[in-house]
Amino acid sequence: MRFLNHIALALCGGLLANAEANAEANAEANAETFTEDLLVKPLQDGRVLLHFEFSIQRMAPTANDALHHYQLFPRQIGEISRRYDVSELYLSFTQGSWRESKWGSPPVNSQGIGAEVRARIKESDPAQSESQWKGLTNALSGVFCASLNFIDSTNTATPRLTFADIGSPAGGVLRQGYLPRENVCTENLTPWVKQLPCQSKSGLGLLLNPYRLYNADFHSMELSLSSTKDDKGTHVQQYKQCLSVVVDPGMLGLGDRWSLADLADRQLGTACPVATRSTVRIIRPGSGLKLAPKPSNTSKLAGRSVSVFDLHKQPSVDIVFEFASQKGNDVWPSERPLISAHRYVTGHGGSNGGVESTLTNRGDKPINVTYLDVLPWYLRVYSHTLEIQVQAADGSWALLQPTSVAFTPAIDRERPSSMELALVLPPSSRATLRYRFDKGFLKYTEHPPDANRGFNIGPAIVSYQHDVANGELPLHCAIEQALAGPSECTVRVYTELFLASLPTPDFSMPYNVITFTCTILALFFGRIFNLLTRDFAVLNPFEA
């Protein structure tokens, strides 16, 4: 009997050892890392850029994952991506225009006003992919309290050239939807903050004060989900949340000396307990800025000196900024993006119009760019009217032929028109694209409440790969390489929105018809009723 007990104890010990080994292996396989960083950049016109970046990295889930444990990774995003077979996801909410002439290159690739959703769905069947896309937008709409459920087939495009850099090894169909009239408010920020491991309880999330964030000249909030490979060649899944705001200390009553707590109206506390890195990085414009206390260390970013404050070493630090002058124009060198794009609407009247876009290359080398413009179905684009002219540095004009064209015509009330062009912009040149369209007629039930204002048309997107030989890295690429290591630099430039004025019916006509008809009926009914109910009698005048 004692011998059997020894055997049982040995078996139990072996099972426990195997269980512990498996648990350690699973823990190592499911290891998740979380980092949080804040970039502060004083701008030329006296405003200040605050760029928050929160990143979670974990091992890429497989089809055999039956338990789907979630530690730091947000459960809502994980379940949505698994339910709708999404390998790549991008969502952004933006309000305000980025002033590139005064602020330089933006810290993010999303400058288009409104809401944008991009997703790569693994399902290749068109009908099934459309169903997954619709379910995805509805799920995101519920999570982030937005109107993303209005993204359907009529405003969804399937780009082929523009987003080729984010292609997933698993393939699939990339879809993009845009809502140019989507407003951003605290209802979107609250669920966005809840996706963070520490939310707004500790770490840099403490500074996410909606009263200050939405009292800014520019506000961009985004999240992205992507699959990459780490240094060991292992497939990992990266989830990133970024928030960029441009605030004006002068509008807040702050002078040339203020602290980070004054700017955010909240005191910075300790680092998030689960964060492996928690830093505040300040890009110094020059000798005209003094910081207190002293930073943990210094580094370089986009050719500028950066003061780094490590919240693990300096908890509850309140960084004080003191400028030599109210505005930093004299200490900031001129910064302009390598490629800029602007778009205008041309023509007049209610039957037809046109689009004119200008692309400017400020570099001294030719650059390959892709141009994407998605127009709704009621603007019927004529592809044969496309004309591209380029003005060289010497002022001469010439025709520019695209190297590749992908055009998808619109179908009324089913899908928009999509035009993608691959161009090679000569050095120090400006290219002008023109094409015409006809304006369709809408049913009176398809007009918005403010129909006379017009229809907001989403921006065009210009994408290119930035080469170090063409100058310094844009700010968002410099941030990415400083925080995550060397990577390719893809830049996307968004043009302005434009208003399309369509033929508008007379919405007061039903009211006029009802009023006129009711008046006639009332008069007619009154007369007839009077005749039918009156008792007629013949009066004899002699009897009176």
Helix and strand topology:
Layout: H1 2-29, E1 33-42, E2 48-59, H2 75-83, E3 86-95, H3 100-103, E4 114-121, H4 126-143, E5 156-157, E6 173-179, H5 186-194, H6 210-213, E7 218-229, E8 235-247, E9 257-259, H7 260-264, E10 277-283, E11 289-292, E12 297-301, E13 304-310, E14 320-323, E15 339-346, E16 352-361, E17 367-375, E18 379-391, E19 397-399, E20 404-408, E21 417-425, E22 429-439, E23 455-457, E24 461-465, H8 475-484, E25 490-494, E26 498-500, H9 509-533
Parallel strand pairs: 1-10
Antiparallel strand pairs: 1-2, 2-8, 3-4, 3-7, 4-6, 5-6, 7-8, 9-14, 10-13, 11-14, 12-13, 15-16, 16-22, 17-21, 17-24, 18-19, 18-22, 20-21, 23-26, 24-25
What does this structure look like?
The chain is α+β, with helices and mostly antiparallel strands and 544 residues long. It has two domains: 295 residues, no CATH class; 125 residues, Immunoglobulin-like. It is built from nine helices and 26 strands. An eleven-stranded mixed sheet has the order 5-6-4-3-7-8-2-1-10-13-12, with helices on both faces. It has a five-stranded antiparallel sheet with strand order 15-16-22-18-19, with no helix packed on it. Strands 20-21-17-24-25 form a five-stranded antiparallel sheet, with no helix packed on it. About 3% of the residues have low confidence.
